[in-house]
Amino acid sequence: MSENILVCIAWPYANADIHVGNIVGSHLPGDIYARYHRLKGNRVLVVSGSDAHGTPITVRADAEGKTAQEVYEHFHRRFLELFLQTGISYDCFTTTHTENHFQVSQDIFLGLRANGYLFTQIEKQWYSPAEKRFLPDRYVEGTCYICGYDKARGDQCDKCGNLLDATLLINPRAKTSGGGLELRETEHFYLDLAKAAPALSQWLAAGKEHWRPQVVNPSRAQADSGELRGRAITRDLDWGIPVPVAGWEGKCLYVWFEAVIGYFSAAIEWSKNNGRPEAWKDWWYDPAAKTVYFIGKDNIPFHAIIWPAELIGLERLYETDPGRRLNLPYDVPANEFLNLEGQKISGSRNWAVWGLDFLSRYDPDPLRYYLTAVMPESKDADWDWAEFLQHNNNELVATWGNLANRVLTFAYKHWDGKVPEPGALRPADQELLAKIEAGFATVGGLIEAVKLRAALGEVVALATEANRYLDAQGPWFQIKQDKAEAAKSIYTALRAIDSLKTLFAPFLPFTSQKLHEQLGHAGRLGGQQRIETFAEATRAHTALTYDPAGAVGAWAPSTLQPGQPLGQPAPLFKKLEDKIVAEERARLGRAP
Questions:
Q1: Is residue 589 very low, low, confident or very high in pLDDT (cuts 50, 70, 90)?
Q2: pTM of the model
Q3: Which residues touch 103 (CB under 8 Å, ≥6 apart)?
Q4: Which residues contact 539 (CB under 8 A, 6 or more apart)?
Q5: Are residues 74 and 174 in the same domain?
Q6: Are residues 289 and 370 in the same domain?
Q7: What percent of the residues of the chain are helix, what percent strand, and what percent coil, each to the nearest 5?
């Protein structure tokens, strides 16, 4: 029976281009997971968008003398371009600066207030006398009072990962000017996390066996600690979503509060855009639906504590049935960090592999392959250019690409461009096909468990088995003595390759599609993306959508038939020269 799968992918701040650490942290694993479930026949909805209201956007806008809207729209367009080129197949990639998101966020705020999960409190906040304004936490830097890191942000320490109280920072200073700060009183709304804590503890206590330990253990500790308290959800800002309460003019909803609402508002936007305004409820109110959040480890508290607390306090929205409640996360498979050549990625030092820059020289599937092969699922990983070269040449080209190309080329040449008639298969033929058929359950189970690195490894191991089979059978030699025997070997290899193409499809969508066509199949394997423009009352924005029309294929072994016409064979991958390692390291400022 088909399942409803909601794939929620972390919203990138629209203040800088996306690098490989961002791609492997959330976008790529979410896409692999979604592509697999589409092939399984499940109803998949993938949502995300550009975070337009985070203070990183206003910081950059101030530095460049631009408006925040100019900054976020520029990078939003570049995000869309990157996702199209890398095959990240969103159903809806929107922004937090839409009328829909404003309305939904304000309605959730009012719903939480009506349910008694918000309260007001006068607090002290850092004020910059030089700038004559209260500073958002991201505009404040200082020494972390937990680990001593001297460049901690006011909201979170990038070194120890803890959420911080900006007022407790040691030696605080304005990020914008470096000037001194004063603590002054201001009033804000707070989310009552203490009130939600018992329900959070109960929810986290059971049914989380599939969660990663680094996600569930600290989340349980936080919920059970008795130390969860109110957290401010408004700020003195002029860029963002206004607080929908009379007398609160000049204050906006805090970005961490409203950005996570984007998963909910994007599903509603997708439904409206597709002419089915109630369709989003299939994912948000169906208790059998699975909502999976793909994020980096720095976002765990927001997705395993704060967003669930918002959903618990709200209970329901745009739904009159009192027996229905909004779904809490089914899983939050947060990835660790990806470093670069042994050092932390740093945009300010240009110590990064930027997605669009990479794609100006290389193809997307090698990027997807390498990032999956080193995916930081349980610990930090490292991008190494020499390792990228090795994975491309030794695995993609030699193990998989060469297998597919030499078999198809041989079949095309010797059997008039058609799949050969094998007759009765031999035990060795049946053994190979049985191994690969079993791989659908093994690989599928690993993807469902979000063990994507291991899943890819299983597919590569099966491709290696197919190579061993060919080496043992030697159809290039068999054909000189007994073409019927060679036909059995080539038919078996084509069936194996056809199955492997599907197993590789969630990871390598572009080359899997090419191979799909070379094997003589029609249609698109797993769908494709398109860009649409939606005009709104105040502005236009571009949303990336997934188009299932014409998608073919299923998560099942090959049923390739003898006599099926083959397409013109062509290599799937390019062998890279050793010199690229020195060239790419030089681009990072490192000596060749």
A1: low
A2: 0.93
A3: none
A4: none
A5: no
A6: no
A7: 45, 20, 35
